[in-house]
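Severity: low
Component: inverse-folding endpoint
Summary: output formatting inconsistent between runs
Steps to reproduce: submit the following structure tokens with default settings.
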């Protein structure tokens, strides 16, 4: 599979204290059309990091100062959404496996195959792009929810749990006709083309709030 180059706003952030390996990886990735920003330490990356970074993070497990695992923990605490691939030596595999359980995407063991690294990076970038699109959609759904009146939200909540118009009318003490009017306004304000789309979008927001 040919590697999928990063989109214009995506950057591969490489954090490794090994200068020779850093230079080699930068050359490899840039030769395939990826944009790369390299850092010699976790401290340097933390100074540069901003919440709007897009792309993925290639992170050495074992570094002087802030280790890769510690950097991962600090970034998680700051709600960093960059997918992380750990670069490990043979003895670091147990640590990398532990990192996977804490949310890292994958790890690759030195000496690694270039094609395998490119495959992992492409997967990470695709995952990050999809995740970013989902966050944008969720934010738009939340914005639209905020535009509903209290009564429209009450009707929506009853729609979500599967109540029919007559049942909604009984629960709220209003006429079926009034329910139909509110329901139509909810569909319009939420820009939903179908009841299924409406339910899926709202439940995605509710599910994200509970995670």
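Observed output (run 2 of 3):
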């Amino acid at each position: 599979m040919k590697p999928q180059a990063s989109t214009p706003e995506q950057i591969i952030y490489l954090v490794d204290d090994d200068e020779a390996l850093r230079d080699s990886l930068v050359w490899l990735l840039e030769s395939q059309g990826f944009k790369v920003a390299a850092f010699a330490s976790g401290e340097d990356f933390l100074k540069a990091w901003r919440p709007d970074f897009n792309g993925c993070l290639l992170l050495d497990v074992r570094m002087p100062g802030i280790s890769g695992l510690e950097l991962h923990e600090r970034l998680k605490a700051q709600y960093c959404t960059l997918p992380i691939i750990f670069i490990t030596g043979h003895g670091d595999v147990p640590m990398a496996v532990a990192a996977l359980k804490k949310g890292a995407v994958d790890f690759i063991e030195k000496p690694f195959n270039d094609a395998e690294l490119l495959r992992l990076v492409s997967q990470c970038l695709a995952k990050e792009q999809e995740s970013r699109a989902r966050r944008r959609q969720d934010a738009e759904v939340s914005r639209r929810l905020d535009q509903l009146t209290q009564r429209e939200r009450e009707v929506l909540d009853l729609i979500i749990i599967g109540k029919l118009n007559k049942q909604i009318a009984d629960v709220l003490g209003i006429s079926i006709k009034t329910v139909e009017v509110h329901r139509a306004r909810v569909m319009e304000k939420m820009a939903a083309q179908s009841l299924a789309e409406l339910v899926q979008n709202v439940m995605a927001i509710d599910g994200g709030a509970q995670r």
